[in-house]
Amino acid sequence: MLRILGRNTSSNVMKVLWVCDELGIEYSREDVGGKFGKNDQPDYLGMNPNGLVPTVVDDGFVLWESNVIIRYLACKYGHETTLWPDDLRARADADRWMEWLSTTVNPPMFLIFRNLVRESEETRNMQEVALGTEKATHLWKILDKHLVNKEFVSGSQFTLGDVPLGVHARRWIELRPEQANSMHNLLSWFDRLKKRPAYHHCLIPLQ
Ligand SMILES: N[C@@H](CCC(=O)N[C@@H](CS)C(=O)NCC(=O)O)C(=O)O
């Protein structure tokens, strides 16, 4: 059975749980990281020298980097699904949105999330929240415009491109509703994601 190491409050762990649920993969999950610790221990560092979560073990094969993990799972178990298209261009299109989220959207979203959810009122830095909000507004507007007349980020089919963006769009809509509420295409797309049972199984309340 697939072994997932990582707390389910982590956005990067949520991506993996969501994809496992979409694909009906049986797994066990162990709480590692955050308040649970263990990711600084030699046995964990032996598997993932970054000391970050998630790490997965698939029949003895150890893998880290959440985007790589979900591509691996979709390639191995998702042939009958639309998650990772066989067509090279369709696959690259989905992949682009995964990379855009990690390299471009994640940094400003992290400023918002860390300060509003993880910090206390005393330690919260609202200047960072304002900076993150300004940058993220510009980026989510790009996605909102892209989603005109599209059901999912790559067109009519749900792919891996929707998963990391979906995890972070939830944070955007819940934490910055004033900015998100005018992004109608983004909200309609997000409503479609919320109809998927896997979304509800894996995206626990923000904490
Ligand atoms: N690029 C890595 C980033 C992993 C990462 O930053 N994980 C965070 C949680 S989202 C982490 O391990 N933080 C330390 C902790 O949870 O103790 C991936 O996508 O897997």
Structural class: alpha+beta
The CATH C-level class name of the largest domain = Mainly Alpha
Helix percentage = 55-70%
- The number of distinct β-strands equals 4
Number of domains: 2
Per CATH, what is the topology of the largest domain? Glutathione S-transferase Yfyf (Class Pi), Chain A, domain 2
Structural commentary:
Strand 3 (55-58) and strand 4 form a beta hairpin. It is globular and about 45 Å long. The model has no long low-confidence stretch (mean pLDDT 97). The protein is an alpha+beta fold. It folds into two domains: 2-77, 3-Layer(aba) Sandwich (Glutaredoxin), CATH 3.40.30.10; 88-196, Glutathione S-transferase Yfyf (Class Pi), Chain A, domain 2, CATH 1.20.1050. It has helices spanning 11-23, 42-47, 66-77, 88-118, 126-146, 162-175, 177-180, 184-194, 197-202; strands at 2-5, 27-30, 55-58, 61-64. The relative contact order is 0.14. Strands 2-1-3-4 form a four-stranded mixed sheet, with helices on one face. Bound molecules: glutathione. The site of glutathione (GSH) has 12 residues, from helix 1 and helix 3. Glutathione binds at residues 10-12, 33-34, 39, 52-54, 65-67.
What attributes does this structure have?
alpha+beta; Glutathione S-transferase Yfyf (Class Pi), Chain A, domain 2; 207 residues; binds glutathione; Glutaredoxin
